[in-house]
Every structure is written in C-alpha cells, then in structure tokens.
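Hi P.,

Sorry for the delay on this. The queue was packed all week, but I finally got your sequence through. Input first:
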Amino acid sequence: MSTPFRPRDNGIDLFVRLMPKAALDRIDGIEIAADGCSHLKARVRAVPENGAANQALERMMAKALGVPVSAVSVVAGGTSRLKTLRILGDATELLERLQTLSK
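Then the structure:
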C-alpha cells in the first residue's frame, strides 16, 4: 500500500481524488484504489469549469493544513479527478497535520 503523499525538500506532494459539485466542501480521509495506490478523498461545491474546482481545493487544503493559499498548487491532473497538490512548508509539520485530517 502506498501513501497519499511524497515528501519533498520544501514541502510535500499530496495525491488527491477530487469530487466537484458536491453538497459540501470536505475532506473524506484516505481512499485506496484498486491498484493499491492511496489518495486523499476530497469534495468541493465548485464546478469543474475554468479551474474553479481546483482553486476551491487549493483554498480548502490551505485552510485545513494551516498554510497560505499561495503555498498550495495543483501541479498535475488539472483536468482529472486524480490530482497532485504541491504544498510548500516544513514537510514534517505538514505530514503531522495531514495525519489528523486523514483519520
């Protein structure tokens, strides 16, 4: 089983499965796909048009992890449900905060 993140020198890469057009903005914990890869499951109310859902995801993750919105960016999967977020900051602190979110 893999982890939903990859540590980096200046933060982490977080693997997310995003569901746009949901009833609520929320993080639903870790999900394991059929291929054994894991990702954080998230929902946003925004529609997947003109990057609105990606921006909503960036804002939600920044707030949840206690980092500025400018520290969170979608670096892969911009038009896909499976995305990679790059979150800048101290990797150890980010991973501790992520542990509390994924329970």
